[in-house]
Amino acid sequence: MNIDIEPIIEDSENFSPEESASEAVVSENTDMAEKDQLQEPELSPEAYRPIISLKHVDIYQKDILILSDVNLTVEKGELVYLVGKTGCGKSSLLKLLYGEVAPHSGDAMVAGFDMNRVRTDQIQMLRRKLGIVFQDFQLLYDRSVYENLKFVTKVTGWKDKHKRDDRIQEVLDRVGLKTKGHKMPHQLSGGEQQRVCIARALVNYPDIILADEPTGNLDPETSFDIFQLFKEISTQGTPVLIATHDYLIVDKVPARVLFIEQGKLS
Q: Is 50 exceeded by the pLDDT of residue 95?
């Protein structure tokens, strides 16, 4: 892709190792202030609009139509599953949402950005409003859990160390890793590493979390725990959109389900 960040979902050949992966949802050059400016503003009419609104959107990849006439809304506090077989277009839809792919036609609004009008230099700002969870973790394995989260706050401009540390501890508590900040990623189980990724996605108060096959590398019991965590996060106000082909987990942790089949979302 020809934008400032490497692709962060689906195509592993485009992933840069370690630090570039963590930089995928943040910018190295930002003047964003710390916690107080990252928190959501007081409610306005804008606050009641859907976080995602797609109307009659066609999605192409390299001149090939992947999905046609996509209509999708995601509201604050929702958990939504995007279900379909591998290769059906789930990741292509997510790529549109984080600005790697532009809509070919139709109207697309994501976290206040018009995806038909968003400029290349605004893509970083869009992605700072999204929390993205990877299937294969992409943590920085040469530093601790705390340092992984500190890295995100550093490149997004947090200056107050006390507020930064309070926020890191808050999100670690939220994902059940209260005492694991000093651990190195290799000392954690797969499920714990994915919880670190979720904490990383939460640290900058995202408008929405996008997760692409977040339990693809996990066993069924751990997968259930991760989906339960996503459910808790959504009920606390942060919407979550999960692309998955794990029908069993979807049945166990019920929420709104959208299906992709033969190039259509229903």
A: yes
179 exposed, middle or buried (CB, 10 Å; 0-12, 13-18, 19+)?
Answer: exposed
Q: CA geometry: angle at 204 spanning 101 and 153, to 5°?
A: 105
3-state helix, strand, coil in the chain (%, to 5): 35, 20, 40
- Give the integer Cα–Cα distance in Å for 117 and 233: 30
What is the DSSP track for 164-176? HHHHHHHHHHHTT
Can you count the helices (H) and strands (E) in the chain? 9, 10
- Tell me which residue has tokens 């069924």: 220
Model-wide pTM > 0.85: no
With a cut of 70, say whether residue 158 has pLDDT above it.
yes
> Which residue(s) pair with 59 in the sheet?
67
Bridge partners, 108 (sequence order): 54
Coil vs helix vs strand at 55: strand
Average pLDDT of the chain, as a whole number: 86
Return phi, psi of residue 114, to 5°: -85, 110
- The 8-class DSSP code of residue 192 comes to H
CB 234 within 8 A of CB 78: yes
